[in-house]
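Lecture 7 notes: from sequence to structure.

We start with a single chain of 491 residues. Read the sequence below before looking at the structure.
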Amino acid sequence: MLTELTVAKALEKLQAKEFTAVELLEAYLKNIKEREGKVWAYVTLTEEKAWEEAARLDQEGFAGGDAGRLAGIPMAVKDNICTRGIPTTCASKILKNYKPPYDAAVVEYLREAGALLLGKTNMDEFGMGSSTENSAFFVTHNPWDLNRVPGGSSGGSAAAVAAGEAAFALGSDTGGSIREPAAYCGVVGMKPTYGLVSRYGLVAFASSLDQIGPLTKDVRDCALVLNSICRHDPRDSTSMAGSREDYTAYLGRETKGLRAGVPQEFFGEGITPEVRDQVQAALKFMEEELQMQVVEVSLPHTRYALPAYYIIAPAEASSNLARYDGVRYGYRASGEEGLLENVLKTRSQGFGSEVKRRIMLGTYALSSGYYDAYYLKSLKVRTLLKQEFEKAFSQVDVLIAPTAPTAAFTIGETHDPLTMYLNDIYTIPVNMAGLPALSMPCGFSGEGLPVGMQVIGPPLGEGTIFQVSHAYEQAGGCPVRKPQLVGGGGA
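Now the structure, written as tokens:
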């Protein structure tokens, strides 16, 4: 099937004219038609525009590099990344009919590269969640078991790639929202170094933590897509200056002698035995087959990352989400009340319970008398975390850790917000320190669900991450299986 091809292989065959862009697009749209009623990955489909672009590419041809480095490849984009004239809802009632007048920087770059937009994917409302159950519209289902969550908040993007409904997708990662769904859905997901990819056009959740990244079928595809979205962007004040690397140049490099650090704190209380065993087996494979040195390291302050994050992120969210007042754009509650009453009514009706919870937490942490006690102290913890990672990377090249403490859990299983927050315990420290990290499959649970492993690098260490991850993948570190789309399903 065409939809089983990786991006790299599909590009090769498009160039060789073994099939056309229209035929490739048709195959993905057929999958969407057949599977979307079970998976529910998309909030909005844009097939009409995709047909036009595919036909244009076929007519103009794929000769040379003029067509773009991703020409003809169907993609999906998380619904908190702006797309001109196409609804960008953040899976929230408050932005249900909002159509941005501009494209996000990453969408601009991918359009230039010739990628075809299939649609916008479902997510936890404003990126707040770990399961995509917090969408205002419907729950996305995991293609490996339709009774289970795909992870969050980029669950729609991960599910679309895993189900063969997109060749690749973009997500955003604030505390693990690319890597966790990648782990649950058995795909590759990367959170780049903070500032490497422009955030222009990304609807803000927590501005000092948010970062856009790719979700793909394998490591090579991840490097290809990252190449296309990495540029300095003067419209984003946090965008790093300077040229970007070609990450595909790291694929196939020797791993012998590289040092992999194992943070002992990531294998303690809370991790399930099957996740621990699969990651430890991956470490043994790296040591024996890839001839890497595996050493234990300690990151004692990571135990404070989760509570510090749930002060910093809600505090930033309470500021960022203040713009949704029903006056300028988005949902507006009807009524004859005064301005203040209408704003309060709009926000009460427009935001979901998790978003309201985090706004309240953040506003409390920033309020008079509590700023120093909570927010300022959390910033100090963040500094300690950065220093601790710096010390670790003076001894090792990468860190290896579980992506999540469990495999995908059942839809509706977790009702307690605090229990849900603990799902991000291994991913949040990376965001707090602004580091790059990639999640990839490293095995399967006893129920046949994917288990994810994180490969974490120092700032701008994406190249080494790809080097190690690709070597592990190509050496057969994880058996290859495909989701069967069995179980429950439905909206």
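Residues 113 and 242 are 20 Å apart (CA to CA). Keep this in mind for problem set 3.
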